[in-house]
Amino acid sequence: MELAIREAQLSDLDQYTDLLQRTYQATYVDSSLGLTEECFSKEVFTSANTQEYLKSKLTISKVQKTWLALRDKNLVGAITISDKGSVCELSSFYVDPHFQHQGIGKELFNLALNYSAKKDIVLDTYSHNVRTIEIYKHWGFVVDETKKAFYRHWPEWPAGLQAKCIYMVFRRS
């Protein structure tokens, strides 16, 4: 099974939606925080609001790139990086749980590193996602102590439900 990596296209939306939905359910569910599987259900990911957001991540431009990793034409990973001027922002970085620990994430991350043209790279992630935070730290990211944590609420979630997020940075200087 050879890995193929290519730029995203809007026609990838269905596979992209499926990958993110499965990955979110496997990674972000934490019932002690109120983040149940229903918060990341197929219905949430196919809602108009979420679909518009996902389409925006698949749009390639001068300032944004999204690469997809495919095995046998099946989407197994994705990464988006955007040039924000003085820094680049890493977002939508996911590898199918069944394909993790095979170097796919590292290959995608290397594309983002090359794209960033030696600029610092920033990201935000759910603070309860300890495993992913540790991977980012292993790759050279640190928690950005200059920025305060914030709380994310998806419109499809129950009223009042929020998930704490932190900022991380990969410094080039």
Description of the structure:
With 173 residues, the protein is of the alpha+beta class. The model has no long low-confidence stretch (mean pLDDT 95). It has a single domain, classed as 3-Layer(aba) Sandwich (Aminopeptidase), CATH 3.40.630. The chain is built from five helices and eight strands, in the order E-H-H-H-E-E-E-H-E-H-E-E-E. Strands 1, 2, 3, 4, 5, 6, 7 and 8 form an eight-stranded mixed β-sheet that branches. It has helices at 13-28, 42-45, 48-58, 104-115, 130-138, and strands at residues 3-7, 64-71, 74-83, 87-95, 120-126, 142-143, 150-152, 163-170.
Classify the beta-strand content into a percent band.
25-35%
- The average pLDDT value, as a whole number, equals 95
Tell me the name of the CATH class. Answer: Alpha Beta
Order of helices and strands: EHHHEEEHEHEEE
Kindly state the percentage of residues in helix: 25-40%
**CATH architecture grouping:** 3-Layer(aba) Sandwich
Q: Which radius of gyration do the C-alpha atoms yield?
A: 16 Å
Number of strands: 8
Low-confidence stretches: none
CATH superfamily: Gcn5-related N-acetyltransferase (GNAT)
How many helices? The count is 5
Topology, element by element:
Elements: E1 3-7, H1 13-28, H2 42-45, H3 48-58, E2 64-71, E3 74-83, E4 87-95, H4 104-115, E5 120-126, H5 130-138, E6 142-143, E7 150-152, E8 163-170
